[in-house]
Amino acid sequence: MTVSILLFLPIVAAVITALLKNGIAKHAALFFSVAQLVIALIFLSKFVPDASTQFVIDVPWISSYGIYFSAGIDGISMVLVLLTTVLVPLIILTTYQHQYKNEGAFYGLILFMQAGMLVVFTALDGFLFYVGWEAALIPIYFICALWGGENRIRVTIKFFIYTFAGSLFMLVGIIYLYLQSPDKTFDIHNFYKMTLDVKHQSWIFWAFFLAFAIKMPLFPFHTWQPDTYTEAPSGGTMMLSGIMLKMGIYGVIRWMIPNAPLGFFHFQSLAMILGVIGVVYASIIAFKQKDGKRLIAYSSIGHVGLIAAGIFAWNIAGVQGAMIQMLNHGINVVGMFFIWDIISRRLNTREISQLGGIAKVAPKFAIGFLIILLGTVGLPLTNGFIGEFLLLKGVFDFSVQHYVNLVLAAVAGLTIIFGAVYMLRLYKNVMQGETNPLTATFTDVSGTEKFTLCLICVLVIVLGIYPQPILHISEAAVTQLVNQIGSKFTM
Amino acid sequence: MNTIIIISVLPIVLLYLGLYKAQKALLPVTVIGLLAALGFAICQWTSKDTAEPIYTGMLLFNNFSVVFSSVTIISTILILLLSKGYFERISRHTAEYYAIILFSLTGIIVMVSFNNLVMLFIGIEIMSVSLYILAGIKKSDFASNEAALKYFLMGAFSTGFLLFGMALLYGSSGSFNIDTIREYVINHPHIDPMFYTGIALIIVGLCFKVGAAPFHFWTPDVYEGAPTLITAFMSTVVKTAGFAAFLRLFSACFQPLSDFWTPILLVVTIITLFIGNITALYQQSFKRMLAFSSISHAGYLLFAIVSLGAASGNSVFVYATAYSIASIIAFGGLILVQQQGGSDNFESFNGLGKKNPFLAFVLTVAMLSLAGIPLTAGFIGKFFMFSGAVSRYHIGLVIIAVINAIISIFYYFRVIIAMYFRADERAELTVPVYYKVVFALSALATILIGVYPDLIARFI
């Protein structure tokens, strides 16, 4: 049993879904995505949580260039495969209330994008990684541009060019690594074994960094993100924020740091500072937002900044924190965008100032919102807590080890306070207070909406109380990777 | 050598068919003849590439020639399939068109299989003279006449450079034969300055033929003025052949002297990339955009010559194939929009996605391929080119190319945006069956090569 079934099923599913008529397509998409989830769970049950790569497929692809279709799952990939396969059905469920024109194409593109992302998360060959990376970009471009808001054309082309530019530089980096590799292949394990000097590694570092920093997005490469999140249809926003930005984070862990460790350590502090600036900057801007969808977009930049800082600390706590936080952030951000989608679809507005008092008319919705919001804020016993705790520990350990002052860690810690401030303020303004004529018309959630909201809340609470299984999946792989690179540094 | 014979006899047959008013037979006879020529060409392919020079050392039909003859013949067939009903609209003497295109193709086959500078020159001339006529074949159309005259004057001028260069090579090495010139280059530590001058002049002549800047000034006007199908032929088949000849000459003779000509070509490449891309950005007409983008593609193709090596032939082959099939789709779509919508502006593509989903889809595939997005053939071509350049440590060049690739997104995506995202009340275009077949085949080939490039990438 190899990972190929996981990679090819969504492509087949995408083609089938794209050919179906309105009304059937969404059910088919849900069916296929649940099937994907089941397959992923089967993989999980057979998965041995050690540092090895399992379910490997390795067949020649482009023989003259030493390119193999080579993919497999280790602990790090497993978490992200779970993230993707859990979130896609959830996202499809959240879009059930929408009537998209040309539904088959919409869901087909989502499934195709899932295939691209799964390729990224499992690829062991540099070329394959790049192809998956771009294959995920094309569908989301069309999703945003076809079903997006008013300014979609301008915003999406900016998004596309931004990310495409970053990834082309990464492609040059990958080609360079390939040409330096002893047996001229794109195999990641060969890349790991190479020892280039600092100067070359620095260039490779920047080539990768640009691609990943734009994708995440990290300050100051984030300018495409709020616009795109705002203009995209809610399903597209969730795909982008829930899963796609994790491609960047995953890329840092798997491709950037291990392939250019010396380059990375050379710029480690700079990278961390960028991450921490992102936390503070995004939080402050989030505080000032009038549009709820934009607020969530900026809060996402803040959270990602902290994840990035934790990875750049490059110790086990930091990277493990990033792993679990990727999963939890995915769930929470999908939840938040879903909440906001429910509000804006019912009331036809995204302005926070026009809302208020919804809790009075929709108590069930209020409970769901509150749970997801607390998860996002990172309250203990919700899923956001453990990740942020580990990430901050990672950043703190780094500060202590490297004798830099603790300001960095302290500032990074502000994220929790800031997050709580703007999120609770959002809740207060939207849900509490007196109902106005607009919000009085709000009907409480029911049917699919209620079911989806319940699912997300259950995930928030369960993963908050008992995160150990997830941490356990990636622990061995992360430990090995961190130590392997760390030892290269001390050599 | 049956390929050349068939392709040169075929046009004479066609002219007779035209004489006896057998208009209906023209296209089938041409296609069957070309398929036969293609079959003979493919039969010459040998796994060890052991072909011997023929005709007293004048031609060498090796794997390189097989591959490039095949891609040019296939592209010509696709273009001719699009021509059903197209030439009839322009003139009553349709046999001329087929015959002249095929004469031009004869020249191209000679160009990709020359083993002697004289044959290179003759090939280029057979091709060019036919093209001068084709560009001006709309006799009463002002733009078409202008295109022909411009093309002819500039072309004759550049041929002069080319011929002068060859004469200088002959003067210093004493032979027109490729092998002898190579031996001269290898065995003489002190190369005659005359020889270097010859190389420089040949570069000028060839750069003109492939439309590389700063010798590109003829391309936009000629491409715009000529009938669209002829433009398609010029920007795909002719360009492919030009690069094949360029590469063949340089890898056979001048490789040891790369220190001399690499800087020249580097400058040419960089200028070509920027001029092609930045000018394409400002075009309002789709046809003119394609003309300028073809200049920038010439820039990418030059990568293979700048970073000359064992893989160059393969890179040019894959890139040219990808570029040709994508361009054929683009020009085919343009013809339909132009004929039925009346204009070739980007606006005339508005709303095509709704009315003609199939046409919009194949055009999207073509644009993605031209922009070099993965899972299309264009990406594989760019990837090979970039790999070649990085392997020669032309990192700066690759970064410039990356910037240009990003610029090109703007204008290729304008078409996609117009088709899908700009709503417009428009009538549905009727897509003839022949067009459908060509579009489907080309789009399929683009995606197949993009997903599994080993299909074609192992023939040189």
TrEMBL record, chain A:
Keywords: Membrane, Transmembrane, Transmembrane helix
Domain of life: Bacteria
Leader sequence residues: none
Keyword Transmembrane helix belongs to the record: yes
Chief subcellular location: membrane
Membrane topology: Multi-pass membrane protein
GO biological process annotation, one example: electron transport coupled proton transport
Gene Ontology cellular component terms for the protein in this record: endomembrane system; membrane
Listed GO MF terms: NADH dehydrogenase (ubiquinone) activity; NADH dehydrogenase activity; ubiquinone binding
Domain NADH:quinone oxidoreductase/Mrp antiporter transmembrane residue range list: 125-408
Compartment(s) of residence: Endomembrane system; Membrane
TM stretches of this protein: 24-44, 75-93, 105-124, 130-147, 159-179, 203-224, 236-257, 263-284, 296-317, 323-344, 365-386, 406-427, 448-466
InterPro entries xrefs: NADH_Q_OxRdtase_chainM/4, NADH_UbQ_OxRdtase, ND/Mrp_TM
Family of this protein: Belongs to the complex I subunit 4 family.
Name of the molecule in the record: NADH dehydrogenase subunit M
Taxon lineage: Bacteria, Pseudomonadati, Bacteroidota, Sphingobacteriia, Sphingobacteriales
TrEMBL record, chain B:
Sequence ranges assigned to domain NADH:quinone oxidoreductase/Mrp antiporter transmembrane in this UniProt record: 115-408
Keywords on record: Cell membrane, Membrane, NAD, Quinone, Translocase, Transmembrane, Transmembrane helix, Transport
TM segment ranges: 6-22, 29-47, 59-83, 95-112, 118-137, 149-170, 194-217, 229-248, 260-282, 289-310, 316-337, 358-381, 393-413, 433-452
GO CC terms of this entry: endomembrane system; plasma membrane
Enzyme class (EC, first level): translocase
Topology in the lipid bilayer: Multi-pass membrane protein
Top-level taxon in the UniProt lineage: Bacteria
Main location, first listed in the record: membrane
Subcellular locations according to the entry: Cell membrane; Endomembrane system; Membrane
GO biological process: ATP synthesis coupled electron transport
Reaction equations catalysed: a quinone + NADH + 5 H(+)(in) = a quinol + NAD(+) + 4 H(+)(out)
InterPro entries named among the record's database cross-references: NADH-Q_OxRdtase_suN/2, ND/Mrp_TM
Assembly with partners or alone: NDH-1 is composed of 14 different subunits. Subunits NuoA, H, J, K, L, M, N constitute the membrane sector of the complex.
Name the record gives this protein: NADH-quinone oxidoreductase subunit N
